[in-house]
Amino acid sequence: MANTIDWGQGAVNNTIGWGKGKTNATNNWGSIYDSTAAGETNITGSGGGAVDADAQAFITAASITDPTQQSAINQLVVDLKGYSIWSKMKALYPFVGGTATSHSFNLINPSQFQISWSGGVTHSTNGVLFGGVNGYGNTGYNLSTNSTANNVSAGTYSRTNAITSGAFFGAVNSFFVGTQLTPKFTDNNTYYGTNDYVVDGSGNFVTDTRGFFIVTRVNSTNKSVYRNGTQISTSITFYNFAPNLNIYLGARNINGTANNFDSREHSLDYIGDLLTGTEIANFYTAVQAFQTALNRNV
Known about the structure:
This protein is an alpha+beta fold. The protein has five helices and 16 strands. It has a single domain, classed as Sandwich (Jelly Rolls). Strand 8 and strand 9 (191-197) form a beta hairpin. Residues 1-36 have low confidence and may be disordered.
């Protein structure tokens, strides 16, 4: 006998949806029903699993309504917690939602370190494309207040291969002591710092500026830079000091003035405590899975 309820697979022409459930409803028997989830931010299921509360807080704050993006965010949070990396993150910007507002929120805590955008910055589903002239983002993350000289790391997932004077991120004082990563300067060298003198340890060891780059303090005397989970340089630190400056994304904050504007596309940026080599490898695995889920991996 024909009926319109369709108990086995969910109702096609009604709102009950017994088989799969519906986001933002009270009858969520199963996983997200994608055709009804579009436009809603209160997800209550993801592939049949529970939604992490921190992921939900970010999704709500950033108004992420796309089910694929919601699922990718949730999985990223779950993976970072599974790898015991989440607690070491202070600010993580996954750049989903495609707008300046959605890209400004910090996944770790949406009420902290929200980015203020300035100048030429283009926002899309692939992330943030900096214009290379005057565009940057002020994270509000102050190195003196929020980190110490011997405990800091930061990173960028870049979709662009380019040799420019632009920095992925940075904050340095007038003596060029601070935290930054300039992946491939016009002299072909890479310059990086972790609350120390950024020129020390520079060299020509980056051939492609695409991928997930991380600079991290190793201990009180050493720092390292990684690409896609593999260490590509390590060096001794000098003039260890955390300056009273906010980290800028897509530029360097040089003693309060934005400079060295980037022209690359960022699909994720983060700032946190120092990470071990194993943690960085796991971090890359989680981030690469996240980018792949969004079809913007390199």
